[in-house]
């Protein structure tokens, strides 16, 4: 398959744009988890809602989860 420079550059730009959208969505997602925890929602409930384990939710609660969100 022969790829033109413009197709190559466009593919890279698409990846950067998708990554930016992913980072934003991830930040919103983790903020919602932190807010719910602050309102008293239990980690086990949030685990079911989010697809994360309750242990990972507890790490987020305790500030031991992802550092960039």
Q: How would you summarize the topology of this molecule?
A:
Blueprint: H1 5-38, H2 43-50, H3 54-61
Helix pairs in contact: 2-3
Structure description:
This protein is 72% helix and 0% strand. With 69 residues, it is mainly α. Helix 2 crosses helix 3. The longest helix is centred in the N-terminal third of the chain and has 34 residues, at 5-38. The chain is elongated and about 55 Å long. The chain starts with a helix and ends in an 8-residue tail after the last helix. The model has no long low-confidence stretch (mean pLDDT 93).
Low-confidence stretches: none
Rounded to the nearest angstrom, the radius of gyration is 17 Å
| Class of secondary structure makeup | mainly alpha
Give the H and E element order. HHH
Number of helices: 3
Give the overall form: elongated
Task: Tell me the number of strands.
Answer: 0
Strand content: under 5%
Estimated helix fraction: over 70%
Distance between the termini: 39 Å
| Main sheet attributes: strand count, strand direction, barrel closure | none
pLDDT averaged over residues: 93
Summarize this entry quickly:
The chain has 69 residues and is mostly helical.
Considering the chains and any ligands shown, give keywords for the structure.
0% strand; 3 helices; mainly alpha
